[in-house]
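User: Can you predict the 3D structure for this chain?
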Amino acid sequence: MGMGQRGSPFGPCYDVFGKEVGMIYAISDVHGCVDALEEALSFVDLTDGQSRLIVCGDLCDRGPASLQVFHRIMGLQREFPDQVVVLRGNHEEMLLEYVAMVGDPCFTRAWMLSDSNLATAKSFLSNEFDQVKRLLARRKFEEAYRFVVGCMKSEHADVLAWIKALPYYFETPKQIFVHAGVEEDARDLWRIGTPVEFFTAMPPDYVGKKFDLDVIAGHIDTETVSGIPGYQGVWYDGASHYYIDGGVMRTGCIPVLAYDEEADTYTEISSRGSRQLKAV
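Assistant: Here is the predicted structure, written as structure tokens:
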């Protein structure tokens, strides 16, 4: 299903001067699940030239199609260059680290443990993966690691360069979009007061606390951050935080958070329907 084929439940919005106002859509934590990504994109409409899509990181690992997901999102950026923003998550950070540290034998075990069933390596390699299996069967782990990284660098250098250039956050006058979070105790100095690793890997330390801006983040499955067993979809803490990691490996779904810039409202959209998010 193509992007926007189902259509957003929102029609065009206009400000008081008659200028069209767009929507801001946000998704996160795709984790190599391209079918769930396509379903989420079916609710996103960028054809007005105003609306934006913010992808809050963790495109890769766990699922079977990390490379396909990267290519899909890269293609969207080419199609809508001023409307699609992609942020880095901790899994993009780890992928870059494993590529950079291939000469360090200490990273061999970390690479194998982090890439569940070597799903990401398999997605980046095609027929070459048979060689990886042969090396692993002979317990040549370091050689297998070097082989995978060598293939990624030679065949997918464009993808690695694109990942390396991803920013840590995106801000509007009202919001911060980020993979994990920001140091909110720094207040208006959060840009310089947040350690770099916090943008992609900090825990949800500010749940239920008001901040100057709305913070839209993924990273932690909303079942975990909400404390509600079996929770699915976007979770709003009633203060300043919208958590959008729908736990795709658990639920098979990537929820879409849609912000109506004119009405100043947030709505969750998914295959389960749409619902406006309100204070709890």
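DSSP finds twelve helices and 13 strands in the chain. The longest strand covers residues 265-270.
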